[in-house]
Amino acid sequence: MAAWRLRRAGAALAASSAVAVALAASSASASDPSAAALDAARQRVAQQGAAPPPRDAQLAALAGSTPAEPLDVLVVGGGATGCGAALDAATRGLRVGLVEREDFSSGTSSRSTKLIHGGVRYLEKAVFNLDYGQLKLVFHALKERKQVIENAPHLCHALPCMTPCFNWFEVVYYWFGLKFYDLVAGRRLLHLSRYYSVDESVELFPTLAKNGHDRSLRGTVVYYDGQMNDSRLNVGLACTAAVVGAAVLNYAEVVSLIKDDSGERIIGARICDTLSGKEFETFAKVVINAAGPFCDSVRKMANSNVVPMICPSSGVHIVLPDYYSPERMGLIVPKTKDGRVVFMLPWLGRTVAGTTDSSTAITMLPEPHEDEIQFILDAISDYLNVQVRRSDVLSAWSGIRPLAMDPSAKNTESISRDHVVFEDYPGLITITGGKWTTYRSMAEDAVNAAVRSGNLKPANGCVTTNAPISNYFLYLRSRNEGLGKRLAHGYPFLEAEVAYCARHEYCESAVDFVARRCRLAFLDTDAAGRALPRIVEILASEHKWDKTRKKVELQKGREFLETFKSSKNAQFSDGKHNGKT
Q1: How far apart are CA 154 and CA 545, in angstroms?
Q2: Over the stretch 437-475, which tens digit does the pLDDT of each residue have?
Q3: What pTM, to 2 d.p., does this model score?
Q4: Alpha-carbon distance 523 to 496, whole Å?
Q5: Residue 81 CB partners (closer than 8 Å, separation 6+)
Q6: Separation of alpha carbons 368 and 360, rounded Å
């Protein structure tokens, strides 16, 4: 964990350097408004001590809009795409608001695979099905992968991923396939893929099994994709959007959409500040619906007869101790014996493994089923030389993927991993589908559609391709406040971070911190539970909570952590992987 702390500090310094280099390299001129806007955004983000406006100021900005002086854009949804859209629109010089009914990244965007990837599987489909559409998806994702890493180097990095081969056909097949992946990436390549012998592979990944299940390892092919801290990146997007002028507000639920007098166009939303219970109206020329799995609920506020767009899919992941995988090498099996993909990746000092892909109902707090956890454990045990035990599971969670279907399509074959931008009611732009890797371009498409719909007059075009995401933790100081202790043994998170997030990152609850400002709930559910009382105490001091509120926060935190199925709160259906020898 100490090494992780050093890497974390080094990444933060790299982020600061990246911003400085970007500023030095900029050559904006008055005749190029987009370059000038990018320069201005970079300067505001890079300014030492820069922090988003307080929550009260953001609420006042939203409530202060009127039919005569509306916002240009109101974004509904504080996930990756929604916050990306707010940042995009704000850097175009538009008046922007964003509301999220829970916390930023409280849904799908915090429960991803943590990979920033181009889509090796999509490339395989493109080749074998001669599908140019799939190939375009890969080209596009590889372009965005590089940009995400460059814009947020303190939260994203390249990760080598090892693919085991158990016969010589697989060696040739994966070698050629991944070389083609390199070729498609072109100048956006992270690093070249290469073949490693059996001995080299085991040296790089010591827990990889050489033999077993009537097969012998013939070597591995290692290629590179990206990895991120997803919710920290999402919160960074929200805060960066606020710094450049967007009014972003979490715990603000849209209760209804406002239509013009003729009832023919959406002109705003009625919003409930769920922290105070008070309602207010926000007016905007265009509303962007970026509510992820819940986007159909927003669409039904405009028209109760709309055709649903979302086909929800569940993805379950588990977290294991660090010895399951080496510090800087992942393991990805593109096709297991039942045809699924399984992976093990180092992440924040632990190992994340997954995943499943099954239909599910849409809920606020999805929970993994025990059979899904067992599937992942069974799948990875086929490739390891260590005993895989259910008692080693430190955390397990489920996320809902909002697979999208274009409502204008004639059949359901249009369901895909690509995104859909659609205006099925004037003034309401819906953006859904896609994946984390392409959030920036999805946001760009949504804002472009909003500009067309509302006949908006942005000062410049999209500049987010090269817009850095700031890391405000660079400027974290304890200031002798007695907040220098760690929150949990073996983890680097400090008490001072709780206070900082409450002051500068819109951290309004214990769950906000333990799940999305630090990642303790995802890394080690039991450690998160032990840290909860101290987190509540610090937040109570920052937000002036009374005893009743502190008790409520502690209870909500414990209920939230119960949805993360660590070995401690697991319900075993049989004796598999239960630690028995």
Answers
A1: 33
A2: 999 999 999 999 999 999 999 999 999 999 999 876 555
A3: 0.90
A4: 20
A5: 290, 292, 419, 431, 434, 439, 442, 443, 446
A6: 11
